[in-house]
Amino acid sequence: MIYELREYVATDGMAERLHARFADHTFELFARHGLELTGFWTDAEDPGRIVYLLRFPDDAARREAWAGFQNDPTWKQVKAASEADGPIVAEMTSRILTTPPYVDGGAA
Hints:
The protein contains three helices and four strands; from the N terminus they run βαββααβ. By secondary structure, it is of the alpha+beta class. Strand 2 and strand 3 form a beta hairpin. Helix 1 runs antiparallel to helix 3 (73-82). The protein is globular.
C-alpha cells in the first residue's frame, strides 16, 4: 500500500473557488477513477491551503487512476470553467509515502 500526500495553495482571493471545485466536482471524480481519499484538511490559519491523503495498492494503480482522472472530459470541463477568470491554484506539491519495513505491516 502506498499513500500520496497532496497540498494545494489557492491563488490570492481564490480559496472559495478552489474549495467549491473540490466540494462540487472533484470528490465525485476521485471516486469514479479509484482515487481513494483517506483524509482531507485545511490549514486552520490559512483556509486557502488544502492538504489531502490518497491511498493506492501500488504505484501502477496510482498512475492509472491519475491518468483516468486527468483525461476525464468532465474534469477538463470543470477545470476550465473554474479557471475561466485565471488560475485558482498557486502551488501544488505531491509526496509518495510508504511504510518503512521496521513498522508493523511495512513494505519489505
